[in-house]
Design goal:
The structure holds two protein chains of two kinds.
Chain A (H helix, E strand, L loop, with lengths): L15 H8 L1 H5 L8 H26 L8 H14 L2 H32 L1 H15 L7 H8 L3 H25 L3 H9 L4 H37 L6 H10 L3 H29 L9
Helix pairs in contact in A: 4-12, 5-6, 5-8, 5-10, 5-11, 6-8, 7-8, 8-10, 9-10, 10-11, 10-12, 11-12
Chain B lengths: L3 E12 L2 E13 L4 E5 L6 H9 L6 E6 L2 E2 L7 E4 L11 H5 L1 H5 L4 H14 L15 H14 L4 E5 L7 H18 L2 E5 L3 H7 L2 E5 L6 E6 L14 H28 L1
Parallel strand pairs in B: 3-8, 3-9, 6-7, 7-8
Antiparallel strand pairs in B: 1-2, 1-4, 4-5, 9-10
Helix pairs in contact in B: 4-5, 7-8
Classes of the chains: A mainly alpha, B alpha/beta.
The structure holds adenosine-5'-triphosphate (ATP) and magnesium ion.
């Protein structure tokens, strides 16, 4: 029996939980782009790890062969042992150095060129066709060529990272530059700015936040190419560590090394996220 | 003394499917201190007209003269306000307003004095150091107008500046703009497709034809100044409105018919 409540004598406000229940669970949790309660977000986030860990544990018990799928404690022990007795820190340091150096070289060339290509049709018309073509050639396909040309030293590894990052990044930056609204520049002209001032006072700052986003995405790709290069021959590095572990059939070490790469990736991503938040507090949509 | 004059201006955009004739035979003069409104059907070339006045694009034919001097390139003498605000998101409200002064290398103290005055005048107090993302649409547009005024341009060009605002905010902005104009007496060329807005703000209304845009009618708005919102309900206002509505309606019908004929 429903009974009408007079407007003046308002019913006690239903709690958020009660309101959600009235709306229906499906509607609360499965409406596109609708925020879900914080507790649910937390639960799901932790839940995904619980699922992975459970599957892994069950799997390792069922398979019962550390050559195929070592158990979690075994990988954990291997991980600690790697740092303590296998000089894993050296490998991590070498890989990190290669990533940073290769990526910096690629970014230092791709960002200026991309900005110029996005703003000057003269530059774009000249560079875009070859870059577009090379972008579709998988960087790892160049590796044999690089080994023949450059040997197995650092040049080869940095060049591979450069190939993998540069061509993608340059086109991403070009698009970013191209998307700067004309009106933003036109306003500056009507405020008396010269072309040069429009370029560095309006055009450049307008592109910065998205350029940092692009760097954040492409540095992740750099890891892929680095590991490939290291697998094919290097004195030290996480990739080298993986290939040596494979020779000794140490699946636990391989998994531990892969997880380490994931952690390094997360750290890089967090650093970029912090830079973004610190340098561009004015950006409307804060990226997660 | 600053007058802006269009002399036989025509604009044709080259496109892949041939030329788009956007403007044809535009001749008009906005004398010093006049508030001129331009209304016309969508796509008739109003924005093109303003871009030519700003020197952002060159007309195919004819020229624009500011105080008799041809305006081939953009300059600080012709300030522009766009519908999309186009504020610089990385600059605070104050630095946005000071942008033109900074470009001119005005000393810092003088910049601060001028932006401070405009911030007060535009009722932006308390938001001087805020970033544009914190502002409502109406406030953003007030910053954009302040930014243009800070430069003390000879002519103010406004392209549907209130087009993106809700009706109430728009009304308030119109009142603010007419007060500002009363104070600064700039020469203004104001594009809108809101007929009431054109009548309320303008000394004169240019009604354009369907594309290619020409000036179809010039209408003097003889409402007294200073204006306030009570005038919107006056009989004279209603008369003017029905005149403009009639002409625009005719042009819009032509636009629809020519589209149908093309189809
Ligand atoms: N760069 C361009 N290239 C080709 N055609 C263009 C270009 N800019 C505008 N046009 C065309 O010229 C005509 C006039 O455009 P304009 O933007 O000046 O019209 P408008 O009156 O401001 O329209 P609206 O009321 O929609 O703002 C339109 O038909 C448009 O499609
Ligand atoms: Mg327009």
């Amino acid at each position: 029996m429903s009974e009408r409540v007079p407007a003046t004598q308002a019913a006690p406000a239903a709690s958020a939980r009660v309101q959600r229940r009235r709306r229906g669970l499906l509607r609360t949790y499965l409406t596109p782009k609708q925020a879900i309660p914080r507790s649910a977000r937390l639960f799901l986030g932790i839940g995904s790890f619980v699922v992975i860990i459970t599957l892994w544990s069950v799997g390792s018990v069922l398979i019962n062969n550390p050559l195929f799928l070592p158990s979690i404690p075994r990988v954990g022990t291997a991980w600690i042992d790697m740092w303590q007795h296998q000089h894993f820190l050296d490998d991590v340091a070498w890989s990190t150095f290669r990533i940073v150096a290769g990526f910096l070289i690629a970014a230092a060339m791709a960002v200026p060129l991309g900005l110029l290509m996005g703003s000057f049709e003269v530059v774009r018309s000249f560079f875009q066709p070859p870059i577009n073509a090379i972008r579709y050639m998988p960087a790892s396909a160049f590796i044999v060529l690089l080994i023949v040309l450059l040997g197995l030293g650092e040049e080869e590894k940095l060049t591979l990272i450069w190939i993998g990052v540069f061509f993608q990044l340059v086109l991403m930056v070009m698009d970013i530059a191209h998307r700067v609204p004309d009106e933003m520049l036109n306003v500056a002209y009507t405020l008396g700015a010269s072309r040069w001032k429009v370029f560095y006072k309006v055009f450049l700052p307008a592109t910065f936040p998205e350029v940092v986003d692009a760097l954040r995405i492409t540095i992740g790709w750099a890891w892929t190419y680095l590991i490939v290069a290291e697998l094919l021959g290097a004195e030290r590095g996480i990739g080298t560590f993986i290939i040596i572990s494979e020779r000794f059939l140490r699946m636990d070490r391989i998994i531990a090394a892969i997880i380490t790469i994931g952690i390094l990736g997360l750290i890089t991503d967090t650093i970029f996220g912090l830079i973004h938040r610190w340098a561009f507090p004015y950006v409307e949509k804060v990226h997660a | 003394m600053s007058e802006i004059r269009f002399v036989d201006v025509a604009m044709r955009y080259p496109t892949r499917r041939g030329e788009v004739r956007a403007l044809q035979q535009i001749s008009l003069a906005v004398p010093d201190g006049q508030f001129a409104c331009i209304v016309g059907p969508s796509g008739c070339g109003k924005s093109t007209l303003l871009s030519i006045a700003a020197g952002l694009i060159l007309p195919t034919e004819g020229e624009v003269l500011v105080d008799g001097k041809p305006a081939y390139s953009p300059g600080a003498d012709r300030g522009m306000v766009f519908q999309s605000y186009s504020l610089y998101p990385w600059l605070s409200v104050r630095r946005n307003i000071e942008f033109g002064l900074e470009v001119k290398r005005t000393p810092k103290a003088e910049r601060a004095r001028q932006s401070g005055e405009l911030i007060r005048l535009m009722k932006l107090d308390g938001f001087a150091e805020a970033f544009p993302k914190a502002l409502s649409g109406g406030m953003k547009q007030r910053v954009a107008i302040a930014r243009a005024l800070a430069n003390d341009p000879e002519v103010l060009l406004m392209d549907e500046p209130f087009g993106a605002l809700d009706a109430l905010t728009r009304q308030i902005m119109q009142e603010m703009l007419t007060d500002l104009w009363q104070r600064y007496r700039k020469t203004v060329l104001f594009v809108t497709h809101d007929i009431d807005e054109a009548i309320f703000l303008g000394d004169v209304i240019y009604i354009m034809t369907n594309r290619p845009g020409r000036i179809r009618t010039t209408l003097n708005v003889d409402l007294p100044r200073p204006r306030n919102f009570e005038m919107v309900t006056s009989p004279r206002f209603a008369e003017l409105r029905s005149q403009v509505v009639g002409i625009i309606h005719e042009e819009s019908m032509k636009a629809v018919e020519s589209e149908l004929a093309r189809a």
